[in-house]
Write a structure and sequence with these properties.
It is built from 22 helices and eleven strands. It is mainly α. Helix 5 crosses helix 13. The longest helix is centred in the first third of the chain and has 24 residues. The protein is elongated, with a radius of gyration of 31 Å.
Length: about 500
């Protein structure tokens, strides 16, 4: 059997080894940003009739025997014969055909020899990113092997940006990103969003497969666009085969499919090349929480004592460290162990120096949505503030019934958008003082905005005007000005305390 395999190799490889040179620059194939900063060429030699030469694909199982174990040590970079590469590629469970030829072999050498340090970094990051890719690919019924596309597109660098303007793990250019409904503005670029960009990539891949019905051509078209692949097919006489249209494709795309195959090989067989994963600083498990107000990363970082660099790494879609959640709710991703503390401390987080972080960002406030923004409830003299700790099995309906308040009020008081609450969550409720004795198990506080007598204090909120405050309390603007000795009533300060006479 070994002789048969050897005979097969000897028969086919002279076709490749007596070749003409056609060098490919690899930096634009593996990663079009600056991660692969040093550029070098790969020998991609073919025979003169290579456009029509059969390529070595999966070798029939009957020609493959178990290969003898090769003893290697950590001090060497092992090299293997082509027969071993063929056997290993054949062993990968892949719906996408994994061909082998000198170009694939040279790209394998790039990953396992010349760029070993980059592969170590990729291996460390894949445990974090691959589950996201696989989950979204599975939703669309696509081959899970397509998760290797971001490896050759961005080297799994979340803030990858190419000289051509492609961004993110999946390297979308602006026009394609907008075509697949990714938001791109001054605050947010969803091309960097691991989940939303993955959904966009899957929709794009689905559209490409509807055109070609061939995953290798889909991968090529993902790189250079369907127009270039269609032109190559036309010039090749209508043949829909990547290896047959190879020379008609753009120079970069000629190496793209071989790089994809090599990336699959390198990730699956890195141990055999003495390559170990470089520990990544990504958390093992993360979760998201919806943000319905403007929030700065520094507010989160300082209050939760979590490095801002890691917040950026988990949320690369926010361009200037701001989640503009007031205009349209968006999510924040944090390690799972920080989700509970964020919920418990969310009032402190949102209020922490917000007048400092958003002093020059008044344009973030959408007046039309201000009624839904975060602000404190004004406690009347007949109300008391009650804290309720959610118990197992409780719902908003049960809690509302117990305290004889409306579900919508509970959601309003606690800035809750959905009907979901969690066990242990602290809820704020406002109930009449004469019913306090019925809730002895709940914590209560006295109204902080009222005074004994004829005055109340009011804390100025975002968007407040003197006329609006006066109307709220049914008093004249001039009375507020005189009582608080305001020199410039047109410039109320956020957080300013005003003394107001009861009507």
């Amino acid at each position: 059997m070994t002789n048969k395999l050897f005979s097969l190799i000897c028969t086919l490889f002279p076709l490749f080894l007596s070749a003409q040179n056609d060098s490919l620059l690899i930096d634009s194939v593996l990663f079009d940003s600056a991660i692969f900063a040093d550029t070098f060429e790969i020998d991609t030699s073919f025979t003169s009739d290579s456009a029509t030469t059969p390529w070595i694909t999966h070798v029939p199982a009957e020609l493959i025997e178990p290969l003898p174990a090769i003893e290697i040590t950590d001090s060497i970079i092992p090299e293997f014969p082509d027969s071993i590469y063929i056997k290993r590629l054949y062993s990968i469970n892949s719906l996408i055909p994994l061909s082998y030829n000198p170009i694939v072999r040279n790209f394998i050498h790039v990953y396992t020899d010349k760029k070993r340090d980059k592969l170590e970094s990729i291996l460390g990051l894949k445990d974090y990113y691959f589950p996201f890719f696989e989950s979204v690919l599975a939703q669309y019924g696509l081959p899970l092997e397509l998760k290797y596309l971001p490896v050759i597109e961005s080297a799994l660098h979340p803030r990858a940006y190419s000289h051509a303007g492609a961004a993110g793990l999946w390297q979308f250019i602006y026009s394609t990103g907008r075509m697949y409904n990714l938001t791109i503005n001054s605050f947010v670029d969803e091309r960097y969003d691991v989940i939303k960009a993955s959904h966009a990539a899957c929709r794009f891949l689905n559209d490409l497969y509807a055109i070609y019905n061939d995953w290798i051509l889909v991968i090529a078209a993902y790189n250079c666009g369907p127009a270039n692949v269609n032109k190559a097919i036309r010039r090749a006489g209508g043949i829909k085969n990547y290896w047959k249209i190879y020379y008609y494709l753009p120079r970069e795309t000629r190496g793209y499919v071989p790089a994809f195959i090599a990336a699959m090989y390198a990730v699956n067989f890195h141990h055999e090349h003495n390559i170990k994963a470089l520990p990544a600083s990504m958390p093992v498990e993360t979760d998201t929480i919806m943000i319905c107000d403007n929030l700065h990363f520094k507010q989160i970082s300082i209050v939760l004592d979590y490095p801002i660099e890691k917040i950026r790494l988990l949320n690369p879609q926010y361009k200037i460290d701001i989640i503009p959640g007031l205009k349209a709710p968006d999510y924040l991703r944090l390690p799972i162990e920080y989700i509970g503390p964020f919920i418990d401390l969310q009032d402190s987080i949102f209020n922490f120096k917000d007048s400092v972080f958003f002093k020059n960002n008044d344009f973030l406030i959408n007046p039309a949505n201000y009624a839904n923004s975060r602000h404190s409830h004004i406690i009347s003299k007949d109300q008391a503030k009650v804290y309720h700790i959610v118990k197992s099995g409780e719902s908003l309906g049960i809690i509302a019934q117990r305290y004889r308040v409306r579900i919508s009020d509970i959601k309003y008081w606690n800035h809750i958008r959905s009907n979901t609450i969690r066990t242990g969550q602290k809820l704020i409720l406002y109930i009449p003082k004469n019913r306090l004795k019925n809730y002895s198990g709940s914590k209560t506080t006295q109204p902080s905005s009222s005074l004994n007598g004829e005055f109340v204090y009011y804390i100025v909120k975002k968007g407040d005007t003197l006329s609006a405050i006066a109307a709220k309390f049914g008093v004249a603007e001039k009375q507020i000005i005189l009582l608080n000795k305001l020199s410039n009533a047109d410039k109320l300060m956020y957080g300013q305390k005003l003394k107001i006479k009861r009507k």
